[in-house]
Amino acid sequence: MAEVYITKTANFFPNSPVSNDEMEDYLGMIDGKPSKSRRIVLRNNGIVNRYYAIDKAGNVTHSNAEMSAQALRKLFDNDPEQIKSIELLSCGTSSADQLMPSHAVMVHGLLPEMDSVEVVSPAGVCCAGMHSLKYAYMAVKLGDVNNAVATGSELFAPLLRANTFEEEAQKLKSLQENPYIGFEKEFLRWMLSDGAGALYLSNTKNENELNLKIDWIEGVSYANKIEPCMYMGCEKLENGSLKSFKTMTPEELIGGSALSIKQDVKLLSQHIVSFGYDKLKDIFDKKGITIEEVDHFLPHISSNFFRSKIADILVEHGMGVPEEKWFINLYTVGNVGAASIYLMIDELYHSGKLKKGDKILLVVPESSRFSYSFGLLTVC
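Request: output the structure for the sequence above.
Response:
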């Protein structure tokens, strides 16, 4: 089978970066009051800037598909002839602009420069970007196509606006209850960011630039062991099951902010690190490789809170990674979900830090029901 190389990387961020102090200018205040949780969450997550595809009035400035298409065009400096040569388009996201058509066909529809090609839309949350990359990788490796573009993208800002929660807040207020929305609903308002990343995969190296050979990509789900942790378009019941938006009345759908994204914070902190890094040790043991062979460690983290926990469990497994090998850009771009690993690869690729022979370890956790994706790249 063919070797597969990432030969181009690109990003797209909408608008200007938004600082911590500006967040509520864009997202608004629930019940007209500043958030009580914002400073607590920001102190723990370490994020100082993020990007929103909305303006301060709440108007959407870029769709998810538009950001993905812009990242793809940036791969080729907007050259229509190069874009026309793409043989496969694989686009992963957890926040498509619509339930149907699929995200990837909407991206394709914004790219008239392209030919009619196969497209695929992996769903999920953070791992959707890695699933997109793996599909493209397998297609090139099997010889089905000579090249492919994989993207990861997110657009959550419109759903983080205060008006998404306003009816629920007023309902609680009328019942003389605390009008502040539950922490599990407000937590992610201070975490998420919008943007897109794109990678060009080929069975031929670019002799004029550095290439990232994909050695392997592996994934695992623990949904058989644990209930949902992050969810959207549903409500979580006391028994851990989910009530779909399809079974809700209009009043339940709007009054309970069912379309907002929610996080079971207790489940997250209990399991997200242990499940993923136990599996990483198993993969390394199976493949007969050691952590010492890794030169750049790219863990997708939703919050700086988990950084020390990851470092500790790696040491516990005899896989400690020196601080100088870590590469994380969460703090400057925010948590961009399925796009985060693309944006880390892109920033590292253009950083000047890479040299031939370096190995790059990718780790992407997904808390929705505890799935994980891992990958190893070699600079050549």
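Residues 88 and 117 are 6 Å apart (CA to CA).
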